[in-house]
Amino acid sequence: KLALAPFDAHRLVFVDGRYAPALSAVGTLPAGVKVASLAEVLKTEPALLEPRLNGGERQAFAALNTAFFDDGLLLSVPKGVSLEKPVHALFLSTGGAAPVMWHGRVLVSAEAGSKVTVVEEYAGAGPGTYFSNMVTDVFLGEDASVEHVKVQHEGEQALHVATLRARQERHSRFTAHSVSLGAALALAERAVGVAP
């Protein structure tokens, strides 16, 4: 059962940390906008992501994520483009008999003057124990606007750790909303920095 009612969005679905194209519906995107699986982009265009995934982490769970991340969402919005529909990253955990751990990543790059809403949703389908370790990095260019919504509705035995970081250039606007409705343990860390 999902926490959010169905809504119109560019949607990528991940099951136990891995992209599920058959469940996803990205739809038609404006020219230059990229909504894709991080693992797929790393295979085809590694130079695009390496500067954003270069390590140097100071927080333990973020360092663990950088070392072992499975997959996640890449959202890149070029200069001056506004997305009318939100981008929805749905992370589903099956919660099988054996405990499982996965590390997911969301990487958002909003160039100067762009505008986008990102919805991260986490839901557990089974009663098993699992540990999800998420890192969301948001980069906002000058005058960019990003609204970030996170809804966590994991299973009763889930362990959910999340790090949200935003790096902003001048006159950019970053708004974050977080709702936590499940999990045995849910931890979140946020950090916002201003680009020099």
Largest sheet: 6 strands, mixed
Structural class: mainly beta
Distance between the termini: 44 Å
Strand arrangement in the largest pleated sheet: 2-1-5-7-9-11
**Principal-axes shape call:** globular
* Helix-strand pattern: EEEHHHEEEEEEEEE
Share of helix, binned: 10-25%
Radius of gyration: 16 Å
- Overall mean pLDDT: 87
The total count of helices amounts to 3
Strand content: over 45%
- Low-confidence segments: none
Multimeric state: single chain
Give the number of DSSP strands: 12
Structural summary, described in words:
- The protein is mainly beta and 196 residues long.
- The protein has helices at 38-44, 46-49, 60-68, and strands at 10-15, 18-19, 34-37, 71-77, 87-93, 100-110, 115-124, 130-140, 145-153, 159-168, 173-180, 185-194.
- Strands 2-1-5-7-9-11 form a six-stranded mixed beta sheet, with no helix packed on it. The chain has a six-stranded mixed beta sheet with strand order 3-4-6-8-10-12.
- The longest helix is centred in the first third of the chain and has 9 residues, at 60-68.
- The chain is globular and about 45 Å long.
Summarize the structure.
It contains three helices and twelve strands. The protein is mainly beta.
Feature tags:
196 residues; 12 strands; mainly beta; single chain
SSE topology sketch:
Elements (H helix, E strand, L loop, with lengths): L9 E6 L2 E2 L14 E4 H7 L1 H4 L10 H9 L2 E7 L9 E7 L6 E11 L4 E10 L5 E11 L4 E9 L5 E10 L4 E8 L4 E10 L2
Parallel strand pairs: 1-5, 4-6, 5-7, 6-8, 7-9, 8-10, 9-11, 10-12
Antiparallel strand pairs: 1-2, 3-4
